Amino acid sequence: MKKDIKILLAEDDVNLGNLLSDYLRAKGYKTDLAINGDEAFTLFAKGSYDLCLFDVMMPVKDGYTLAKEIRKINENIPIIFLTAKSMKEDTLHGFESGADDYITKPFSMEELLARITAVLRRSQPQTKEEEVALFTIGNYSFDYQKRMLKIKDEEQKLTSKENDLLRLLALNQGKILERTYALKAIWGDDNYFNARSMDVYIAKLRKHLNKDERIEIMNVHGRGFRFFIHE
What we know:
With 231 residues, this protein is an alpha/beta fold. Helix content is 41%, strand content 24%.
């Protein structure tokens, strides 16, 4: 997992930034440190990274803005936010900005490493034969292995969570996909923050699939989602 993995770290607290970058390098990750959002964006534009680790509150350019700008260049690179805020609204804002995960300060190095490992594992292309799956969803074709959703000549590369979530919906077409099951299968935990994150990704999938009006992802109150295609 760690071989040749390169991380872009943006943290304006110099002492914490140096501590984190030294720790990650000691664990085998190549790590570049930026002290503000502008510097991080410049490094990202020039380099090649496998994961971004961004403080939210930074001078010049905050982490939310930085994530949105990076998403315009690369829709799929995993982004983890480091935040001193624990308000639910701030966390939801983070997911809407393109975050794959967040970690609230103060945190242990072991927790940070576990989050990085989990996000990288989810973002890796699936190669096991049993994971390979092709789906026809209305007028769309969906290639789970390639994380590709296609309609006519238009292709949409999905993020790892969009990909996993659409696969679960497709496998349960016409049935109710239980919220708790989906959360534990994809996020590993069904806590409030992950549940709000899943709602954001459901909204993204609805947008991706809106070129076929027959497709619907329905909220089933207290249960989860029902994915079906109107005849």
